[in-house]
Amino acid sequence: MSGGTEPLTVAQVGLDRRPSGATGASILRPRNLALIACIVIAGWLVFVPLAALFYTAFTEDTGLGPGPASLQNFVEAYSSWHVARLFGNSLIFAGGTALVTLVMGGLVAWVVERTDAPCGSLFHALALLSFAIPGLLTAMAWILVLSPNIGWVNALIKSAFGLKDGPLSIYSMGGMIWALSSHYFPLAYLTLGPALRVLDVRMEEAALVSGARYWQVMPKITLPLLRPAILSTVLLLFMLGMSSYEVPRLIGRPARIDVFTTDIQAATHSAPPEFGIASALSFTLLCICIVAVFFYRRSTRNAEAFATITGKGYMPTRIKLRQWRWPVTLATFLLFAISLGLPLLTLVWQSFYRNLAQPFVGSAGLASWENYQFILHYPIFVDAVKTSVLLAVMAATIIVLLTFVMAWIALRAVPRSGWALDSLAFTPVAIPHVIIGASVLFAYLMLPIPVYNTIWILLIAYVTMYLPYGMRFISSGLTQIHKELEESAEVSGARVRQVFLRILLPLLLPVLLAAWIYIFVLAVRELSASVFLVGPGTHVLGTISLTMWEEGGSYGAVSALGVIQIMPLIVIVAALRWIELRVQRRAAAAAAEATA
Amino acid sequence: MFAIDQLRKTFKAPGNVTVNAVDGISLDVETGKLITLLGPSGCGKTTTLRCLAGLERPEAGRIVIAGETVCDVENGVFVPPSDRGIGMVFQSYAIWPHMTVFENVAFPLRVARERKYSSAEIKDKVARALDMVRMSGYENRPSTQLSGGQQQRLAFARGLVREPKILLLDEPLSNLDAKLREQMRVELKRLQKGLGVTTVYVTHDQSEALALSDEIAVFNAGRIIQRGSPQEIYRHPKSQFVADFIGSANFLKGMVKEAAGETALVETPHGVFRCNLGQTIAVGQSVLVSARPEDFVLYDKPPGEGLNVLAGRIVHRVFLGEVVDYLIDIGEGEIRVRVKPEFDFRIGQKVHIGVAPQKCVALPS
């Protein structure tokens, strides 16, 4: 390497033989055109609404649309004490949820992954079940369980101890945190579980052999090893708490506990609408979430670095609970029974009675299918089902196709600059759905594209929101397919189209299907963005459930509406699990073959 | 059969450093030959192969396969890999897991554009290809249920089924265990000679290269530094790198005292050595005398005339079964010597080392 003018060789720099992609190639090559198309579509979806949000925030709100530039919105939104309360409530709500879910999910993860307590796979299935239940329905069910006036558990306690008032109230900060945690703790379990699974027991044993006492191993070895996983779980749930809309809307509002999401929505729906204030408030929420996502992604990177430490020869050893095996299992089961079973049972029970019914306590008349018949013949419901299913099918299909192409381009065609496309597709993760709903609304009110009050504006929002999920599924699926599988097809004489159809598509099909179903379920459950975007003819399942609850449908009818939504979702989630298990088995079989 | 002319390909390394992976390589190979591209990792051999296959686009140069220009950067010619009529075996074998053995081999025929194959023809050709690699009877086996060696045979059958103009092999034996590797090496040679298909073989394993090749091109830092038959490369390395990379060589520093045609006298700290010259070297130039461990002979008394002789003390002895390796301290430096086990020497013993002049090569240092 004399004089520095001689080009370095690969060996000297020590980098792998990664091709530089389209170096020196014409911009008109098909893969470059596809790349540009993907960037334009994803960029449009992500940045146009954000631009509209910024524009609305920094201009005068004239009531007829944005006027000249001004900071008036910020002055109005942030000059009252109300905003300090908003800030405090949001942080306590999100932080509390993160901690409660961490404890609950951590316990379940420990039982399932680290002990020999039976029924581990049952608990895993129950955790996935929670994914099938829309958040709105959980909130409703908890009101039916724990409201001071109508909650049946409160009634039960009152009559048992002869109290005048119910001792528990869902209409409090604690109630809100509980309602959300009961819904989200399985997520904490699902993110902590893998970290606990790969934690090498021999690291703990090495500490013991080195002279550490049992009580020293936990704080000095186990927790530091798990720190990245714990941190990322807390950040993820904090962010979900920040973006949560259903619980604050149903429980927080009547209790006058306002958070950012509900206030943003209220501002856009006040008369006259205060879009400027809504977007100024969105600003803070967005910043908090971006910071959380930033640290989340950093900590998951660290988590991967920690995971590789275990490496070869790792033997999972479980703690032997001996006589405590069944008590521990029972306690875990009880946790699921209380957090998931109780609200679900309440909804199902209530759905058979017209009036308020209290399970096991008093009867509200005869059980009947009356509520179901009412809902199934309720024209608004039928329309909403059609709209929701149509939207979910379209969103899932578009996202799967788009992210299939995007992931392929990012990983194969331009691997060196692929991260840019990847980051672009991941950006919406940091944007709470409430803000996506609001900013899509602002954008298409301003743009001369006639989608306002149509199903298309909902579709745009859904595709934007779930783009990251599609990307995550498909790019991780694609990284598991060796590049040489495609190259050997090319060398064998196959054109790009044939490589896609005959090699990639069959190999990726289970992943594509899983991604499709996952997005479908999320889209059917959607509420937080939809409340901004539904018009008279475009109500979705989430919004009609909300309207029916708030505008005094009978408890029985609302519950039946919920049960009708949950049952098919459970079936679909079970199908998703089945596909995932098949993919895992195939990957495991392939890995076993490779090492054999 | 094919020719590469002034091929160039660079990669962008982190920090915007340009790296010449392939730095002006030219190569032409006759029909039916097996040429090995040999070199350490990152020397550009795989990139050259991938350019030949069309999986990589070079930045400069021309590639002609069987009279057809498949790549000519200056004139904007680039034939995609699917249309180059080549067969290739990948390091990972790249067996498609969603297809049976039969379907894997049939794939190149099914996507063929030059003509449409009837299903009877496909069946016949696949059967012949599988028979060639001794995989008959496995047709309906899912390809995930094959051992490493079987996957490898399958990859060869798939590469050969179209009767390609050239066969490209990217370290095809590196994923096999040592015993199977040796066995496959023999089979590969037999197969290649039997079919007479022009073959390009990429490897970093010098013994593989020596065993298989009609010709070896030694790569280093994106360039071909020596080309020749295995014997030439082994016997007459032209540089320290080649002498060291192919086999392992001992080097002694020295200076040319006299040069006459092919031979020279080299003055070393251990006496005057008579050597071969691989290239013209002027008197007075400093050189390295290179000699292979197996070319030395050990004596307990000074040997007779006609040999280059060194004296030293044995410091290390490794028994390897067929041979014994000795490490001998010769004062300034050490010499590795490999001899048959019937000559047994002890550690600490003083020995005389002899090597024939025609086994010593003087290389420019």
Textual characterization of the structure:
The complex is a heterodimer of chains A (596) and B (365). Chain A is mainly alpha-helical and 596 residues long. Chain A has a domain at 76-309 and 325-350: Orthogonal Bundle (MetI-like fold), CATH 1.10.3720. Helices cover 73% and strands 2% of the residues of chain A. Chain A has 24 helices and 3 strands. A two-stranded antiparallel ribbon of chain A has the order 2-3. In chain A, strand 2 (59-61) and strand 3 (66-69) form a beta hairpin. In chain A, helix 4 runs antiparallel to helix 5 (120-129), helix 4 packs across helix 10 and helix 15 (370-376) packs across helix 24 (555-595). Chain B has a 6-stranded mixed beta sheet with strand order 7-8-9-3-10-11, with helices on both faces. In chain B, strands 2-1-4-5-6 form a 5-stranded antiparallel beta sheet, with helices on one face. In chain B, strands 12-13-14-21-15 form a 5-stranded mixed β-barrel. Chain B folds into 2 domains: 2-240, Rossmann fold, CATH 3.40.50.300; 248-364, RNA polymerase II/Efflux pump adaptor protein, barrel-sandwich hybrid domain (OB fold (Dihydrolipoamide Acetyltransferase, E2P), Beta Barrel). Chain B has helices spanning 45-53, 101-110, 119-132, 148-160, 178-195, 206-212, 230-235, 240-245; strands spanning 2-13, 17-29, 34-38, 60-65, 68-72, 77-78, 86-89, 166-170, 198-203, 215-220, 223-228, 250-260, 263-268, 271-277, 286-291, 296-299, 308-319, 324-329, 334-339, 350-355, 361-364. In chain B, helix 2 (101-110) crosses helix 3 and helix 3 (119-132) packs across helix 4. In chain B, a hairpin with a 2-residue loop joins strand 4 (60-65) and strand 5. The model of chain B has no long low-confidence stretch (mean pLDDT 90). The radius of gyration of chain B is 25 Å and the shape is globular. Chain B has 365 residues and is an alpha+beta fold. Chains A and B meet through strand 1, helix 1, helix 20, helix 21 and helix 24 of A and strand 1, strand 2, helix 1, strand 7 and helix 4 of B.
